[in-house]
Specification:
It contains 17 helices and 2 strands. With 566 residues, it is mostly helical.
Length: 566
């Protein structure tokens, strides 16, 4: 029987967290900055309509498809090693993208950026679980990490607008280069290595099955956002579902699977994933609609629109940092439920926005939405990662990221399609007679089309189109409010038995007997990686096999929060 205690993280670990936050900010920034560069990019490279879509979507397709694979690969070859390989690849390919001379070359570069980006997110999150053994510090660190992505998304319009005012469209890709250099220099100094002990052969067939399961589903979601339910959309969804079943059946029969499907038997793990998925649906849809509302209805330039998104990002930051602190005294399920209830209020406010002057109401409403996002991103992610065994933390992190990517995509597809349907219905009913059919088709398709064809439409018609688009957003936000209110109630119920963060000792056992402890959990050597005097692997902070935080998968041990329902 072993006896271990937890020693808090020191300056090295917190410095390492700052380094790990850099690529996370970069990935968030990359999501929004290209929207600003698209007009000048299109003028230079002259892509077709299909190529333009692939320039935008290739990155998202590949990052979603490879997250699970890269999370498991990091567990096997070393999480820090994979992070550094991915950072070097991301910086190199970003240079290629910046000086692309054709649409085809840029599509290839965007796809490669997606694969490289898939190495960064799960690696950073899994390494945090290794560096912060103390439950309270780990929850706070994950809160900082969760905020970094949103911070990057908020900075995208501002930074991109400034750069495009002074440089060519490719300059926005070069933001990745200094980030990659800092990470490559600082990571060996501040970040410990971790490699799962006793890993079996890498499941290449499982990789293929995971890609053929995830990519068709992502494609179906994105196509649904554009064309609704049609034969290709349904066929892609069915193909993804079939291969998902095959993937799960294969993983269940392997000794060393890409994804430990047994994790889903843990109710806390499954519930946290569900909260992340559904919660991100509302955020993804509202983010798209509010961005369009600020630029097309309110007429704000990208930089000013980005600045208005600053206060909501600040509220998310406060929620992501503050919710783990509150959860030390109040059960995480109650914290999540309360912040989601506030998000419901935010969606209701967005449903009340009108087309005449709604900037202030949008900022307040979206700020409350982001408040809920900060809490579920921090606490939900901590529940998911903490419920997994140390050697599966990379896989669990990737699962968390995949669910969040899918939630954002579903939000854009479902809520975006609903808003578009309302817009088209109202515009078609009021389309002026005598308008050329090609102009009517463009103006009736979307608000962006209405703005672009406004000079060929009767005076005052654009105001009607703006009102129709605002009605579409209002309707979508009502649906989001109802779903979020239901999610708030369910969070309080399904997470009700999860104890407060750090509310009890983390016991250590030698097998099947009762747990004993002399403190709070694993002991570290000051490098954020614990050492044991029993049967666990030992590390000096720079080699593999350092266990992460206590796991619910080990006999006799509680999950990420003592008292968690199993």
């Amino acid at each position: 029987m072993t006896t271990t205690t937890v020693r808090g993280a020191g300056a090295r670990e917190w410095g390492g967290l700052a380094v790990l936050s850099l690529p996370t900010v970069l990935l968030g920034l990359d999501v929004t900055v290209l929207y600003l560069a698209l007009p000048s990019l299109a003028e230079d490279l002259r892509p077709s309509g299909t190529q333009e879509l692939w320039i935008m979507d290739a990155y998202g397709f590949l990052i979603a498809g490879f997250l699970l694979t890269m999370g498991t690969l990091g567990d096997r070859i070393g999480r820090r090693k994979l992070l550094m390989i991915g950072a070097a690849a991301f910086g190199t390919v970003s240079v290629l993208a910046a000086w692309s001379t054709s649409a085809e070359l840029l599509i290839v570069a965007r796809a490669a950026l997606g694969i490289a980006g898939a190495t960064l997110m799960p690696s950073t999150l899994a390494l945090i679980s290794n560096m912060f053994a103390d439950q309270r510090q780990r929850s706070l660190a994950i809160g900082v990490w969760a905020t970094s992505f949103a911070l990057g998304m908020a900075l995208g319009p501002v930074v991109g607008g400034v750069m495009l005012d002074h440089f060519w469209w490719g300059s926005v890709f070069l933001l990745a280069v200094p980030v990659a250099i800092v990470l490559l220099v600082a990571a060996p100094v501040l970040i410990p290595e971790y490699r799962a002990p006793r890993s079996g052969p890498f499941d290449l067939l499982g990789v293929a099955l995971s890609l053929t399961a995830i990519l068709p589903v992502v494609y179906a979601v994105k196509r649904f956002a554009e064309d609704g339910f049609d034969v290709p959309t349904i066929a892609a969804a069915l193909v993804g579902a079939v291969f998902a079943v095959l993937f799960v059946r294969r993983q269940a029969g392997l000794a060393n699977p890409l994804l430990d499907v047994g994790l889903f038997a843990d109710r806390t793990f499954s519930a946290a994933l569900g909260v992340l998925l559904v919660g991100l649906v509302g955020v993804g849809g509202s983010m798209l609609l509010i961005t369009q509302q600020l630029q097309f209805v309110e007429g704000l330039p990208p930089v000013e629109a980005g600045l208005w998104m600053g206060p909501p990002a600040l509220l998310m930051f406060l929620a992501a940092i503050g919710s783990p602190l509150v959860a030390r005294r109040v059960a995480p399920g109650i914290v999540v439920a309360a912040t989601l209830a506030l998000s419901t209020v935010g969606y209701v406010l967005l449903a009340l926005v009108d087309a005449s002057d709604g900037v202030a109401l949008m900022v307040i409403g979206f700020g409350l939405v982001y408040l809920g996002l900060g809490a579920i991103a921090a606490l939900g992610t901590d529940l998911v990662v903490g419920a997994a065994p140390p050697e599966k933390a990379g896989s669990a992190s990737a699962m968390s990221e995949t669910v969040q990517e899918l939630g954002l995509a579903l939000g854009v597809a479902v809520l975006g399609s609903l808003a578009t349907a309302v817009y088209r219905d109202r515009v078609d009913d009021a389309m002026p007679a005598g308008v050329p059919s090609e102009v009517a088709a463009v103006a009736g398709d979307s608000l962006a089309g209405a703005v672009s064809s406004a000079q060929r439409m009767p005076a005052g018609w654009l105001d009607h189109a703006k009102e129709a688009a605002t009605s579409g957003m209002n309707t979508a936000m009502i649906v989001a409010a109802a779903c979020t209110l239901l999610l708030s109630f369910l969070s309080a119920v399904v997470l009700r038995r999860v104890g407060v963060i750090g509310g009890g000792d983390v016991p250590e056992t030698d097998g099947d007997g009762p747990a004993e402890t002399d403190g709070d959990g694993p002991e570290t050597d000051g490098d954020g990686v614990r050492e044991t005097d029993g049967d666990g692997p030992e590390t000096d902070g720079d080699v593999s096999a350092a266990p992460g935080p206590p796991s619910s998968r080990s006999s006799g041990r509680p999950g990420p929060f003592p008292g968690a329902c199993r």
